[in-house]
């Protein structure tokens, strides 16, 4: 089945005020299949004029049906969106596989996660409330949780469905009206989501989607004076620009940026349990995952054993077209392949102990890179410090807990970390000591967990998405003090 057969909506338009509208400039951008390098279609190239129209539509929604809707009704609409996503999981997965290049099974998991975000937030919509505060005699004081207003959502290409689910899902739950700018490299499922939301009865203007380039539509959205909150997921460099724009407009901003997430394997770790997590967390989505575990820190007494077993796993990894559903797909673009190749060149002096296999029928024009494992690697080497965003992992030895913590905390980032040890005391000590938004004990990622607050410290960003915590971030607190004598 070709990609076009799966697209039941017009991809060359923006979704504004509940309708599909051609971009005002009339421009388009190409859609490329990373598995083949072929151009498979076109999307709208929205510009600042389209962003203006989207922000106006969102503003009107807040004073219209959407703004007046009860939390219960908002929850019901989110539940309907979730149900419709579930009926289209296979279709969404095929679209995503051909747009992002991720193997079908992984794309399918993203579609299921999108539905799960809708289910979770549907149930939460009428359970977020304020409190009463004991105050002076003759007063009644209470707090109200209210939407910010118009929220801007700028998302990257690596997990469009999951990131839209966690960010737009939470914002809609709290009654905000959203303007979404998907990534130019992969925005088809964002458009599919808009169509599904329309089918589910989301009032016009509550969600608007404007595809386009970062420095055009993205910059216009993040600097728009009519936007009251910005949620950005992407690179550190662009995150800094977004934070500056938000500063100019004095609006809150959530930044979900990169990572260099470590897994710490101690002398008492169960290596059988750990092994699949050590490898999969590095190569999932071809390593193009903000929470990819790109650093494996291993106690010297188990170092050779872990290296050997990871190397064996690497040699069994098959790389090929997304629709072939192998372990690893292509990278998103020729540009990303160039960046990752640059890192591999920087590691040319290091010992390469494991490598995956690109299958022989993978098209030459696809953006494939064989997953690569280096060991031992010095903790200060660029491959152990910089975010690679490709299927590359390094293994670093350590001699004791202090050294492990120092290495783990020794990058600019702090998104996810995991600790593999049977010692309860060590688990507790390190969970506190690691500078990281999430810490997992004897697992990594806990299966995605829409319920689990997620976000970083340091250059990994700030603010939290996912779970109930996101609902606080996507709302503002009003205190009401009534003097009644
Ligand atoms: P990117 O920053 O280049 O692009 C992300 C989004 O920002 C895209 O929609 C893009 O169009 C937009 N953008 C680009 N320039 C802009 C500008 N000047 N103004 C406004 N918007 C602009 O990042 P990327 O290459 O798409 O994604 C890779 C990066 O994202 C990695 O560093 C990765 O770690 C990070 N990431 C983080 C998370 C997380 O949750 N922490 C999740 C996914 C990706």
Secondary structure topology:
Layout: H1 3-6, E1 14-16, E2 19-21, E3 28-33, E4 38-44, H2 48-63, H3 65-68, H4 71-87, H5 89-100, H6 104-124, E5 132-133, E6 139-147, E7 150-154, H7 160-173, E8 177-181, H8 188-199, E9 207-209, H9 214-222, E10 229-233, H10 236-249, E11 253-256, E12 262-265, H11 271-283, E13 295-299, H12 303-315, E14 318-319, H13 334-346, E15 352-355, E16 357-358, E17 372-374, H14 382-385, E18 392-398, H15 401-408, E19 416-420, H16 424-433, E20 438-441, E21 461-462, H17 469-473, E22 475-483
Parallel strand pairs: 7-8, 7-10, 8-9, 10-11, 12-13, 12-19, 13-18, 14-16, 17-18, 19-20
Antiparallel strand pairs: 1-2, 3-4, 5-6, 6-22, 11-21, 15-17
Helix pairs in contact: 2-9, 4-6, 4-8, 5-6, 6-7, 11-12
Characterization of the model:
The protein is α/β, with parallel strands linked by helices. The chain has two domains: 3-257, Aldehyde Dehydrogenase, Chain A, domain 1 (3-Layer(aba) Sandwich); 262-449, Aldehyde Dehydrogenase, Chain A, domain 2. It is 39% helix and 20% strand. The chain contains 17 helices and 22 strands. It has helices at residues 3-6, 48-63, 65-68, 71-87, 89-100, 104-124, 160-173, 188-199, 214-222, 236-249, 271-283, 303-315, 334-346, 382-385, 401-408, 424-433, 469-473; strands at 14-16, 19-21, 28-33, 38-44, 132-133, 139-147, 150-154, 177-181, 207-209, 229-233, 253-256, 262-265, 295-299, 318-319, 352-355, 357-358, 372-374, 392-398, 416-420, 438-441, 461-462, 475-483. The strands form six sheets. The protein has a seven-stranded mixed sheet with strand order 15-17-18-13-12-19-20, sandwiched between helices. Helix 11 (271-283) packs across helix 12. The longest helix has 21 residues, at 104-124. It is globular and about 70 Å long. The N and C termini lie far apart (72 Å). It binds nicotinamide-adenine-dinucleotide. Residues 154-159, 181, 183-184, 214-215, 218-219, 222, 233-235, 238, 241-242, 256-259, 290, 387, 389, 461 line the site of nicotinamide-adenine-dinucleotide.
């Amino acid at each position: 089945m070709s990609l076009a057969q799966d697209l039941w909506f017009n991809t060359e338009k923006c979704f504004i005020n509940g309708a599909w509208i051609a971009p005002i400039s009339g421009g388009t951008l190409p859609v490329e299949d990373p598995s083949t390098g072929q151009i498979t279609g076109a999307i709208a190239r929205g510009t600042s004029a389209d962003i203006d129209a989207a922000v106006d539509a969102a503003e009107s929604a807040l004073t219209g049906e959407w703004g007046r809707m009860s939390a219960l009704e908002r929850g019901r609409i989110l539940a309907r969106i979730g149900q419709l996503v579930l009926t289209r999981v296979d279709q969404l997965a095929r679209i995503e596989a051909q747009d992002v290049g991720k193997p079908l099974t992984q794309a399918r998991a993203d579609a299921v996660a999108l539905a799960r975000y809708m289910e979770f937030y549907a149930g939460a919509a009428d359970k977020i409330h304020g409190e009463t505060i004991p105050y002076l005699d003759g007063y009644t004081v209470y707090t109200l949780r209210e939407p910010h207003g118009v929220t801007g959502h700028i998302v990257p290409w690596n997990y469009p469905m999951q990131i839209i689910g966690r960010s737009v899902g939470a914002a809609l739950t709290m009654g905000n009206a959203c303007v979404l700018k998907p990534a130019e490299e992969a925005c088809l499922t964002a458009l599919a989501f808009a169509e599904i939301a329309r089918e589910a009865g989301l009032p016009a203007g509550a969600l608007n989607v404007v595809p386009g380039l970062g420095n055009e539509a993205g910059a216009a959205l993040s600097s728009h004076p009519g936007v009251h909150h910005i949620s950005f997921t992407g690179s550190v460099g662009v995150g800094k620009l977004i934070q500056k724009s938000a500063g100019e407009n004095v609006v809150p901003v959530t930044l979900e940026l990169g990572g260099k997430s470590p897994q710490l394997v101690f002398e008492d770790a169960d290596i059988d349990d750990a092994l699949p997590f050590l490898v999969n967390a590095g190569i999932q989505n071809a390593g193009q995952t903000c929470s990819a575990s790109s650093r494996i820190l291993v106690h010297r007494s188990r170092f050779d054993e872990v290296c050997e077993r990871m190397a064996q796993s690497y040699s069994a990894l098959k790389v090929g077209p997304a629709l072939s559903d192998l372990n690893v797909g292509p990278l998103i673009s020729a540009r990303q392949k160039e960046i990752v190749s640059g890192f591999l060149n920087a590691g040319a002096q290091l010992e390469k102990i494991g490598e995956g296999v690109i299958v022989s029928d993978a098209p030459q024009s696809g953006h494939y890179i064989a997953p690569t494992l280096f060991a031992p690697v010095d903790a200060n080497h660029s491959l152990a410090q910089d975010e690679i965003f490709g299927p590359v992992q390094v293994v670093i030895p350590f001699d004791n807990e202090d050294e492990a913590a120092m290495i783990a905390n020794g990058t600019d980032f702090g998104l996810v970390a995991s600790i593999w040890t049977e010692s309860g005391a060590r688990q507790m000590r390190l969970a506190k000591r690691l500078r990281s938004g999430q810490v997992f004990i004897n697992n990594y990622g806990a299966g995605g967990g829409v319920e689990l607050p997620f976000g970083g410290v340091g250059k990994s960003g700030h603010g939290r998405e996912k779970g109930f915590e996101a609902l606080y971030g996507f709302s503002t607190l009003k205190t009401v003090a009534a003097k009644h004598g």
